[in-house]
Specification:
The protein is of the alpha+beta class. Helices cover 35% and strands 24% of the residues. Strands 2-1-3-4-5-6 form a 6-stranded mixed sheet. The protein has a 4-stranded antiparallel sheet with strand order 8-9-7-10. Strand 5 and strand 6 form a beta hairpin. The N and C termini lie far apart (45 Å). The relative contact order is 0.13.
């Protein structure tokens, strides 16, 4: 998959402290909320005693991010510092457990999600820079990075699936069939969610459908052509002699994300506004009870 400047190079524009802990945790929480059809009453979060999260989930704001994601918020939401209290007020009971999983990866989130009507489990990795990977749902191996609309369809029994027909009918980027103890799980990656009417027309009645919205700012596509893939290739292009680098970057991201130049510029303007606002807040001074150091940036304002 081609790198996205917004997703991978700039990385998450977010409420700190850590992209791999806070932003990733929030994105995992948002997918978990979608998996539960936005209806959650109880969450058990399990961390490996030998991983990084067992000792850092509080100080690096994994708790804050995960709670905000379970509420359906974005990574820049101003309410994030108060997300644990707001989650509790929303009637969602969250419990954290530490167990010996001996995971190879240091940043593994295991969630047990319950409502009055259903229960799901989800295992996810934070791989750095706010990038995530869902590796199983209900103990079924799966791969979700949050860069597509993911329509998940559970069947009561296995069905013969004509993938070529479904890809064409749904205008899907990819379709995978996963076997489960109770039947089959159909995973549809697309630029859009698949409607109930489309599913009924091509699959008949189904056991359960869940739609997980993309959590990365720029979505991926299976068929992507970009003007260059390395800095060397970029500088070798004829227009690199006369066109500013930022315009070449816009051309790249526009092709990578199937976005218009205006859409890319609008996203960049939004990022600049967020950064300017955060700088202003920092210089004005903030006060948090859990900080080792107090307000430090006043000297910049005086200078």
């Amino acid at each position: 998959m081609q790198v996205s400047i917004v997703n991978d190079v700039i990385g998450p524009v977010m409420r700190g402290a850590s992209s791999s802990h806070c932003a990733a945790a929030l994105r995992i929480g948002r997918i978990a909320r979608n998996l539960m059809n936005d209806n959650i009453s109880k969450v058990v979060v399990q961390y490996d005693r030998h991983g990084s999260l067992a000792t850092t989930h509080e100080t690096q704001c994994s708790d804050m991010g995960l709670d905000g994601g379970l509420m359906g918020w974005d990574v820049t939401d101003e309410r994030l510092p108060n997300s644990p209290e707001i989650l509790k007020d929303a009637g969602i009971d969250l419990k954290i457990e530490y167990k010996d999983f001996h995971d190879e990866h240091p940043n593994v989130y295991r969630l047990v999600l319950e409502s009055s009507v259903e229960k799901h489990t989800l295992t996810a990795l934070s791989t750095g820079g706010g990038i995530i990977k869902i590796i199983d749902i209900d103990e079924v191996p799966i791969s979700i990075f949050g860069d597509y609309w993911e329509t998940l369809v559970w069947f009561g029994e296995a069905k013969n699936v004509d993938f070529d027909t479904l890809v064409s009918a749904f205008k899907a980027d990819d379709i995978q069939l996963h076997q489960t103890p109770a039947g089959s799980l159909l995973q549809i990656k697309a630029q859009h969610s698949i409607t109930d009417e489309q599913l009924a027309e091509h699959l008949g009645s189904t056991h359960r459908v869940r739609r997980c919205a993309p959590v990365l700012p720029v979505m991926s596509r299976t068929e992507t052509t970009v003007p260059f893939t390395t800095a060397t290739e970029m500088f070798e292009r004829e227009e690199a002699k006369t066109v500013p680098l930022w315009q070449l970057a816009i051309d790249y991201e526009s092709a990578r994300g199937n976005l218009s130049r205006k859409e890319v510029l609008d996203r960049m303007v939004e990022i600049v506004c967020i950064l300017r606002n955060s700088i202003a807040q920092g210089i004005a001074g903030t006060d948090y009870a859990d900080r080792i150091l107090g307000y430090q940036s006043g000297a910049y304002a005086k200078a």
